[in-house]
Amino acid sequence: QVVPVESGGGLVQPGGSLTLSCVLSGSSLDIYDVDWYRQAPGKPRDLVASIMNRGTTDYADFARSRFRIFRDDAKNTAYLQMNNLKPEDTAVYYCFVRRLTQGLRDEHWGQGTQVTVSS
């Protein structure tokens, strides 16, 4: 069973930093593209950043200047480094791994990790 497991969330003051990790069990991460999403209470789940299996990255506008997505396939882990955090970054952050194989979607969500930005 392929399961992404997030960690690294917590409570941080405005202006602080956190790095989230997503460890993939049950498969090799290097065959997947990885997205980080976030969902605040009462709001839809939003895409934060993506990294393809060859390393190409993309970011939501709100994340482009403050967040960095990267991966270490040798550790089967993807990361989201978040700097200069703001209260509006408070959300549950989810890791999503995906690929197309023989025309079929192979997609898996993690359980999420809570990030709270507050003084």
Features of the shown structure:
0% helix; four-stranded antiparallel sheet; seven-stranded mixed sheet; single chain; 119 residues; mainly beta
Report on this structure.
This protein has 119 residues and is mostly beta strands. Helices cover 0% and strands 55% of the residues. It has no helices and eleven strands. Strands 2, 4, 5, 6, 9, 10 and 11 form a seven-stranded mixed sheet that branches. It has a four-stranded antiparallel sheet with strand order 1-3-8-7, with no helix packed on it. The mean pLDDT is 97.
Task: Sum this structure up briefly.
The chain is mainly beta. It contains no helices and 11 strands. The mean pLDDT is 97.
Major sheet summary line: 7 strands, mixed
Overall number of strands = 11
Unreliable residue runs: none
Mean pLDDT: 97
- What is the first-to-last residue Cα distance? 39 Å
Category from helices, strands and their pairing: mainly beta
Helix content: under 10%
Morphology call? globular
Q: H/E order of the elements?
A: EEEEEEEEEEE
Radius of gyration: 14 Å
Instruction: Estimate the strand proportion.
Output: over 45%
So how many helices?
A: 0
